[in-house]
Amino acid sequence: RLPQDALRSRGFDDADAALPVVPRAFQGYRLLQEYFALPHRFLFVDFTQLSRAVKRCDGQELELIVLFDRHDPSLEGSVGASQFLPFCTPAINLFPKRLDRIHLSDRVNEHHVIADRTRPMDFEVHSLNGLTGHGTGPEQPFLPFYAVRDPSRYGRDQAYYTVRREPRVLSSDQRRNGPRSTYIGSETFVSLVDSQQAPYRHDLRQL
Hints:
Elements: E1 7-9, H1 27-37, E2 45-47, H2 51-55, H3 74-78, E3 111-113, E4 131-135, E5 140-144, E6 159-167, H4 172-177, E7 186-194, E8 204-206
Parallel strand pairs: 5-6
Antiparallel strand pairs: 1-2, 3-7, 4-5, 4-8, 6-7
């Protein structure tokens, strides 16, 4: 018989985070993001202190029996052996990637961020690690507008950007044949602002 602390839930600590942990942000928001992106990741549990039981086992199989504090009839018909898989780890395929260039236009107030124009449905933008404007003059770095606590540290010539998301719209082919996954994803847009030149430096052509 193992103690109660031999069985513990996983997924709520920062060490179990599937998305990046942002120190200045409330971690409850990250947990909500992970829940809606991958609800099953909060169904993981750890069985610890099993080495003692394994040493006492003479056969080739080991049966684990978990006793609950109360009886829940709804579990009898919804939980089966096929829903228990050992040695599994939840993961989100999140990695850094240089995005395709964005061509700037003064006819719009925000610009669509696309990771790869040849495969637009294969990627979704999680966050922007850096944004730089290119033109005939020197490169113009843009800072995240809401992350700057002390604008005076960066000088008066600094430029900023904000991010907006909206649900991804299915293509005609996806509407006809169905999407590859139940998760549709989102599209990302950035708006630029320059404290000295509105809305941004006139010679900039690309991001």
